[in-house]
């Protein structure tokens, strides 16, 4: 469901386009070469792009929490492109297995229902619609954190066992932040929101206070350890924020969910692709980020499953969290956006630009609700009904997303690398009259830097260092060529570079 396009191509293609997907791959490959001890990657936080700027890895997600899942495939001899594909397969498999564990052990769903719910979590439409942002794939740490929280809430969990669950909860939160900021921040936000919702029901309020009395010391102890473990990430991220500045709400405004966002499936969905042409969805700004729908039947059954199980605290909490989230995150007519208060009032929220990505988080309560509904059908002797409904729900998730040819992208990189002379101390790839988007040339240069072991002035990330004015990097005409030449001289003066030591590559690939 998640990677059929890659598998059916015989691994010839990879999900996404040659922009964000290859950038995420670049960060992982840089991390692997750091672990391997390559001289050009001796400092993890100083990836050799935007040369000679420092702390460039912190401009975006460093992905340390999922780096081992890539490094292991590279260590056994896979090429970078193949290792990246298997990294995606591994991450999706772990999403599935963690959700299966949570639904079986934490929620008590039947095995068949848990399987369907776990597939929904790992390969739901909203997640696969974000496949061009592979940093959004790894969410299994969050599932482990939720499972640990459920264990701590059980009255039969002893202090000794609770210490282990508290350690898992904190470790999962720390690892999720190291795996990617969005899911790490959303995990903290939704845990806090769950605690607030729990205060609204007498039984869950009692469970919350009892859990804190019983397991509070262990949570405090492991929490201190977790904070210490996060210090390197926090320090480098704050340093990057001081250098490049924080997001303004204007940058996030176009990606605050509309009412239609919660139902938008995108034009590549197998069953609902035709809805992408409807004005309600087509006129949404930054439309690709708003594809957070899960399908009519899936939403109905997931909601019904939670409602029928409302006597269970976990079901009521999930319904409450979903309701509050939709209410505070949705943009209303007239431009009213309650999220403005969250953006300016909650620590870290001003680093969340694509707010609507929280729709992917809704896969967790949706998978719980669907599993509970299907389990109920099975208990009532309607296993065939459960199988049929579960199959249709999964069919609703089917997507035919974009892909790019791995060999073609690699050939462009090899061509650029071949133009970097042995005496170059750094280089800039700024093709004259190139027909591809500027970001593709930037990333081609970054990957060519790997091949030659030479840093590049080119760069592509969530941010750029102050004074770097090499975007767009295409020499389209005399005016743009003069602008780039001056930008290179200004950058060299500001960063103490000898302009004559910078090799210039200005010819695009022959094709």
TrEMBL record:
Keyword Transmembrane in annotation: yes
Keywords: Membrane, Transmembrane, Transmembrane helix
Residues spanning the membrane: 84-102, 107-124, 136-153, 160-179, 185-202, 214-234, 290-307, 314-332, 352-374
Keyword Iron: no
Top-rank taxon, per record: Bacteria
Record's signal peptide: none
Protein name in the entry: Glycosyltransferase RgtA/B/C/D-like domain-containing protein
Organism taxonomic ancestry: Bacteria, Pseudomonadati, Myxococcota, Myxococcia, Myxococcales
